[in-house]
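A student in our group prepared the protein record below, which I am reviewing. I have pasted the whole thing underneath without changing anything:
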Amino acid sequence: MTRVFITIDTEYSSGLYTGPGAADRADNFARSISCETPTGASGISHKLELLEEHGQKAVFFVDPMPALVWGVAAIEDIVGPIVAAGQDVQLHCHTEWLGLAGAANPLASRATGRNLFDFDFEDQCAILDYARSTLIAAGAPPPVAFRAGNYGANDDTLRALAALGFDYDSSHCPALVGNGDCRIGLTAENRQPIGHMGVLEVPVGAIGTMGGGLRHAQITALTLGELLCAIRHARDSGNDSFTLVSHSFELINRRRMAVNPIVRRRFGGLIKALASMRGVTTGTYADSPPQLRLTGGTCQPLPASPMRTGRRLAEQLVSNALYGNI
């Protein structure tokens, strides 16, 4: 069985932050976590209901760093429903919040930065230790897996994770090598789980593009047809796992507080299709983590298709024109 890891980066927005007050936190929660709109919810409660309805599992990478400005209760409101639904909570971390924390910055150096790679090894250890402790204080089981905010990790991040007892990282996005924030010492050819710096690095999935490159397997980046073809390709190639990325807020336009029905249908269609797809199951890091495959399987992504690419471009054009960016 090929395990599909539906990973959902679950996070308040530092870009929408305007102050430490309760009203600001509530507004940020509404726009980034619950995503309640006049036409219905499309945040984590909606995703949890879909997962339960179709008997599927997902991994919620939860960022606890906003506790620096709003306290642990802000994270409890996220973690509680996920744990109650029997879904997997793992650790996410956006270091942008250190710059908003002022005197609450837990680092002795009071350093700030957009990405984890902006910090030295000792500060990264301190940040990750704070984040883990806060996530557990909010009601999550001790995490074993991590993803950096913005994918902004480097090899020191993985060394820090290993020193803190983490087993897995999923910050390497092969499709964004050279164009994103990740500084891990791996290449676009590293598309299968690989041991690196003391942890098992689990790359984000990708498909081939018409220009010979890669496109990452994110709910907003690929059509439903491309996502399903990529999963079937991974299964038919004998791959142990395939990782998809979503975010807690991706199904809406956060500034307009309006559902994007194209992306909402895409996510719902994915969950429904996975429930009946032969040879495929959904996995979690808590119960069925990715494995290092020493033999078998291929690293070749789903080949590019002019028809699938054309459909995506048309769908994205309509989505952006009618419903805007997230």
About this structure: The mean pLDDT is 95.
